[in-house]
Design a protein that fits this description.
16 strands; alpha+beta; eight-stranded mixed sheet
Length: 245
């Protein structure tokens, strides 16, 4: 059985604080208790991916390889989203955007970039508040993730690619070359999950056949088996495959 996109994970210096920020911006519920070591947000409709916040102390160097693009229904809606982000601890940043561009570039309290897109963006129509996870990456990696998740390839032009679940919702996009060199561990990563009873070893083998590589390390639990297998996509981005529950 094919893995599903279980979560988009942030590595954060204070996971619970970052979870509260994104909960305030997105109006998603925080799952679990007041644990400083990990936190998660659940999508309001109960479908699609969750957002997890995991501990990480690596200093931020340069821009992240991925960021959220948030959509707007109107100019007023865009202003409200920006104001909400600023109220919860976000701030404006300059990444070289031009004054005539309609989107607003912000960073969360941990320095992770995101954009609030102007209304009328046809590509992100009907995707929901998180219109896209916009990634720095090659055409090859877009093809890989389309096959890995069995999501539709909804854009493939000029080496730019985008995929979307057959159920709709957030798109994942890759901007094509030039792709900045990877330095250190990504702050944002994918976590995949398999249905109960599925053969994770077979799924890991399928992902390797598509172009992924497996790391020799993972994250263990009390019975000594790896709870999450660490892998890398064709662009060297970390992702994890959870053990079936």
């Amino acid at each position: 059985m094919t893995s599903q996109l279980f979560a988009i994970c942030f590595r954060a210096t204070r996971p619970s604080d970052l979870a509260r920020f994104w909960s305030g911006v997105l109006d998603w519920e925080v799952a679990g208790g007041p644990d400083e070591d990990a936190a998660a947000l659940l999508p309001p409709d109960g479908s699609g991916f969750r957002i997890r916040f995991l501990p990480g102390q690596e200093p931020k160097t340069g821009r992240n390889r991925a960021h959220f693009d948030l959509t707007s229904a109107s100019p007023e809606d865009q202003r409200r989203t920006v104001a909400r982000a600023l109220e919860h601890g976000g701030h404006h940043i300059d990444v070289g955007q031009r004054p005539e561009e309609g989107h607003v570039v912000l960073a969360d309290p941990d320095g992770n970039e995101f954009c609030v897109i102007e209304p009328g963006n046809k590509f992100l129509a009907d995707t929901g508040l998180i219109g896209a996870l916009a990634c720095d990456g090659t055409r090859e990696v877009g093809y890989f993730w389309s096959e890995a998740l069995r999501w539709s390839l909804v854009w493939d032009q000029d080496e730019e690619t985008a995929i979307q679940s057959p159920d709709g919702g957030t798109k994942i996009t890759w901007g094509g070359p030039p792709v900045a060199p990877k330095t250190g561990t990504n702050r944002l990563s994918f976590e995949l999950a398999l249905p109960s009873g599925a053969d994770r070893q077979a799924e890991v083998g399928r992902l390797v056949s598509l172009g992924a590589t497996r790391s020799g390390t993972g994250e263990g639990d009390s019975d000594g088996e790896l709870d999450r297998v660490l892998m890398y996509d064709p662009d060297g981005n970390e992702f994890f495959v959870r053990r079936p529950r």
